[in-house]
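Exercise 7.
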Amino acid sequence: MTTFQPERVPGQAPPPDSVHPRDSSAQSPTSVARLGDTIRGFVETWGSVWVEGEITSWNLRGGNVFGRIKDLATDATISIRIWSSTRQRLPADLAVGDRVVACVKADYFTRTGDFSFAVSAMRHVGLGDQLERLERLRTQLRGEGLFDSARKKPLPFLPHLIGLITGEKSDAEKDVHRNAELRWPRVRFRTQYAAVQGDRCVPETIAALTALDADPEVDVIIIARGGGDPQTLLGFSDERLVRAVAAASTPVVSAIGHENDHPILDDVADLRASTPTDAAKRVVPDVAEQRALVSQLLSRARTRVTQRLAHDISQVEQLRSRPVLRNPEHAVAQRAQHIELLVARGRDHAERAVAAQTRRTAELRAAVRALSPASTLARGYAIAHVGGGVIVRDAEQAPAGTEVTVTVGRGSFGARSAGEVDETSTPDRPL
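Solution. The predicted structure, written as tokens, is:
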């Protein structure tokens, strides 16, 4: 490109417009306009390029769209603008959070110094590619055990406080509150609002989950969104959010989308509800059903107690109808007669035994008496004793003149031996 170069006086600094930015210095600066034209000329050489990313901003002004596209792997973004004539050729359902491929051409505005890209074509990224990536992540997480039923926490029967993560003023919030309050009017909620699509969805949902999980009063957490196309639900399959839910200590209920929607959050949550309405029904018991159940249990208990009482009364009546209980005095009288008979028999047996032993004792006493020395002495015999109480059994023990003591049947007396006695005329010696 040829530029006009005005003549300059020797020794005088060239005007800024004539100095190329590459040749500029403190003594010969270039002008802002020349710098802007140089940048614009360089940018125009780039031509059009195709880029892939996620729409993070989409502002409609006067039929034109001004927005931003973010790189999927980093936080790098570019500004885009879509003129109304181009917008008419694009899909009508483009929105924040969509993953797109766009044909853009760089442009630099010298007057404002703004740099942006003009969009000439834009379309959604092929859903098949996204689903393939999600399935790979799903397989990886399943292999790590994050979907195992053994690690899922049970929901409380009647939560005192329910944590709710949803979009502000969303239909999902209204559905959860309305259905929960219909089932249990005194139910309480602690709600944390978060973006449910777009680039803010994942960080805001994780922040809300962290806050509710740290609250000791919260018994269960519901993450609710009122459905949407697969593009808008991508945030609920994000690995960061899924792992945060798996690490939560409070039971988490996933209520994302409708029955056919299936983000990865459904697999890792402790309970998957098909809709926000279904989540309210699964988390909060129905007070009418519980009252009916209590009435049913009371009725069953009352019937059971009545049946048991009737059975026991019947058993008592059967026992009372037996003879032994109908006339208990008869049994006592019979036992008394038997006891009296046994006592009489025992007394008779004892008396006979005593009489027999008495007779036996008398016989033994008579035998003992007959054999005793006293009986012999009573019959006229005597026992002679010499000094020391020695019984004289031989005449030689008492020579003539020996003093002896003679014991007879009634007493004893002293005597003196007179000499030997003719043994032929001596009577029998005492025993």
